[in-house]
Amino acid sequence: MSATPFDQRDGWIWYDGQIVPWKDAQLHVLSHGLHYGSSVFEGERAYGGEIFKSTEHSERLKKSAEILDFEIPYTVAEIDAAKRLVLEKNGMTDAYLRPVAWRGSEMMGVAAQDNKIHLAIAAWEWPSYFNPAEKMKGIRIDLADYRRPDPATAPSTAKAAGLYMICTISKHRAERKGFADALMLDWQGRVAECTGANVFFIRDGVVHTPIADAFLDGITRRTVIDLAKRRGFEVEERRIMPDELQSFNECFITGTAAEVTPVSEIGPYTFKPGNMTKVLMEDYAAEVQPKAKAA
User: Are residues 150 and 43 in contact, defined by beta-carbon separation less than 8 angstroms?
Assistant: First the structure.
């Protein structure tokens, strides 16, 4: 991946209905989204020129905005079309896409009912989130100090920018200690998710994953659950306590960026990436590839 800062790259970004040069896609320092976290976003991947589950992502973007009490002034179909245009304009087929919506600068205070809602969509080349060689042997994950908040205290079901503040802190701490990521618990001390990915465990041929009611129910997460069921694997969505981690044989995480990544270690607990994880990695890789069009 290029080391060029993101504000200095070449290319094109869709911004409020127009394709603009990459370096011109700017916002004012007094934008409400910057000061008060009134911003939502999506992370998506295009494979072979097709954006995987594009409409599902656009629908979630709209829903996240509604949860934060604002409406994105574009339809799901218009957002889908804008993402395709960004790919085409930048000449990309395999890319990461980042739609982001935020409140503008008309009012500066907690209340901002009259602020304009902006939407921008960028795309860039981004390889696997984790080093391929490291991914095959399983990544090492730390235990985070911060917990996911009680849904009664934060909009947990939205992909809201503000919810990622403690994720950045936790990932930085983990990386400084030599880990690839950090596992977060929920406000009641139960296993929740990593800083940008959902987590799965395997024991005795059964796939286990935490119930996604205090954190984002990832689109990749749902895809992998469906793939596991298609394989005939039993999947249990349930509460998982940290002391149970010692009983699992395999572990992997899922996300648009992480895709399906095996885990070899979480704090004091160790896992050995096995056949079920390998099968789901391969099934996901096949699932995201564009399907051949009928003649």
Answer: no
pLDDT (tens digit, 9 = 90+) per residue, 20-33? Answer: 999 999 999 999 99
> How far is Cα 14 from Cα 97, in angstroms, rounded to an integer?
11
DSSP assignment of 262-273: EEEEETTEE---
Q: Is 159 a catalytic residue?
A: yes
Q: Is the alpha carbon torsion for 138, 220, 215, 244 positive or negative?
A: negative
Quick check: 200 and 254 in contact, CB under 8 A?
Answer: yes
Among 3.40.50.2300, 3.30.450.20, 3.40.640.10, 3.20.10.10, name the CATH number for the domain at 132-288. 3.20.10.10
SS (H, E, C) 160-224: EHHHHHHHHHHHHHHHHCCCCEEEEEECCCCEEEECCCEEEEEECCEEEEECCCCCCCCHHHHHH
3-state SS assignment for residue 32: helix
Residue for token pair 């002391």: 243
Question: Which is the catalytic residue, given 159, 229, 278, 291?
Answer: 159
Length of the chain: 295
Burial class of residue 97 in the structure, from the number of CB atoms within 10 Å of its CB (0-12 exposed, 13-18 middle, 19+ buried): buried
Instruction: Extract the residue ranges of the chain whose pLDDT is less than 70.
Output: 1-2, 128-135, 292-295
Helix (H) or strand (E) holding 57: helix 54-67
